[in-house]
């Protein structure tokens, strides 16, 4: 189901565009179709862990990524795991102001993906 953003959501749309405009953000979103820790995302995408944490924070603030809980790392530490909240984001520049839409991930899709990956 798509949800269009309106003018009152301008700060949200700016946060989304800013987050998506940063290097590695799209790669993190693609890799986070299933729950993953920052350490796993950093390894999968081959980016520095500090950069990965910065991008994760921006994506969470923009509502594109969510913390799904915590799990034990290989070192035995509790670590956050993240999953993207959207499958698609669209921007339309044909009007005076850009309009935005997004296709949110459903919980059913998350469960199916988890079963396929698990």
UniProtKB/TrEMBL annotation:
InterPro entries documented for this protein: WH-like_DNA-bd_sf, WH_DNA-bd_sf
Segments of this protein annotated with the region Disordered: 97-118
Pfam families registered for this protein in UniProt: HTH_20 (PF12840)
Organism domain of life: Archaea
SUPFAM superfamilies (alphabetical): Winged helix' DNA-binding domain
Composition-biased stretches (Basic and acidic residues): 104-118
Protein name: ArsR family transcriptional regulator
């Amino acid at each position: 189901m798509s949800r269009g953003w309106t003018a009152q959501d301008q700060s949200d749309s700016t946060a989304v565009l800013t987050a998506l405009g940063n290097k590695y953000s799209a790669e993190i979103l693609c890799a986070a179709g299933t729950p993953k820790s920052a350490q796993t995302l950093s390894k999968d995408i081959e980016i520095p862990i500090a950069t990965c944490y910065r991008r994760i924070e921006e994506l969470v603030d923009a509502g594109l990524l969510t913390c799904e809980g915590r799990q034990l790392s290989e070192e035995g530490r509790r670590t956050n795991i993240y999953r993207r909240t959207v499958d698609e984001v669209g921007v339309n520049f044909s009007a005076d102001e850009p309009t935005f839409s997004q296709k949110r991930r459903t919980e059913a899709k998350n469960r199916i993906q988890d079963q396929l990956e698990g």
